[in-house]
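Please, structure for the following, as tokens.
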Amino acid sequence: MASNNGKKKSLRVAMIASEHTICEYSIFLERLLVGLADESIPVALICPPGFNPGTVFTGINEVINYPIFDLPFMERLNIRLLTERLSRFEPTILHCLCESSASLTRQLALRLDLPYVLMVNSLQKRRGHLSISPGNCQKIIVPARSLAENISNIHPRFADRIRQINIGTFVAEKSRCFSDPTRLATMVITDSFTKADDFENLLNVIKRLLIDGYEFMAVIAGGGRTDRQLWKLLDALDILKNVSIVPRLVPWRSILAAGDIFIQARANSAFDPVLLQAMSIGTTIAGCKGGVDDLLIEDQTAVVFDSNDEMSIMRTLKRLLDRREFARQIAGNAQQYLRENHSVSKMISDTLGVYYESQR
């Protein structure tokens, strides 16, 4: 939006981030902040206590921890103190980085009488789940078409405010998949480990592949409540020599670069930034359709299997291990797709466009 003298209004952005955003979408946040810093746009980042993003991310002018008092019945005081702190920063727009912070952002926007944009990263199941202010929420940003359709169906009155902005990534020049013929093939699997049963079919297939004489290593990167059960399952299948579990680490690229094949073990109801990173470095993707699956274009950017069908998983992994040139072609196709649709520069320019459109 332009002012009367033809110049764009100045921007001062306050971002509201949850613990999940900082941990899972750190690469996206880092690149967005760098892009805003290049445009000399001041940014305040509101995040949970215990995080000091200023030591990790560049481009932050002010870090505000919320809540200040993590005690019962202190919400009203915490909101008041946060509002006062933000008033001193004088933001012109608020940016809620995920739906878990939607209610907090709505309260801040009403108290400060500011417009805000809301980013939605996961599929919504019911209308009342997402808190949206009709007067202050100017745009709803989604990183995938499936999310745009989901929000339009559940919140049709806000359909005209939805903007798809693809998360940008830097794509490696060459494919990582089977690039070194002397190295043992490696599969990388990521998950939050909420249910060990989710891995049972895949691990049974890995066991059968090893029995059939295939030589490879598998790395499960994650962490959660079921770590112990997963270790027990690996031990029961007698595949501990070939399958390792490592903690989820940031940056992800260092883990993903060890793999030739990236396996998305189950359908994901949220946009998966790790899948995006795996594609960008040139690993071949084997994943499950369903949920937010926009990046999984069958036999173009990925190969697809049914996570509930061991034979489907077996056929898919054998196809990649037996036909390595085909696997490399899929990886290269995915990289080209990202170059055409997920550039960092376009993500930043589109986000800036939404900010300027949303300012009053």
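The chain has a mean pLDDT of 91. The first strand starts at residue 13 and ends at 16.
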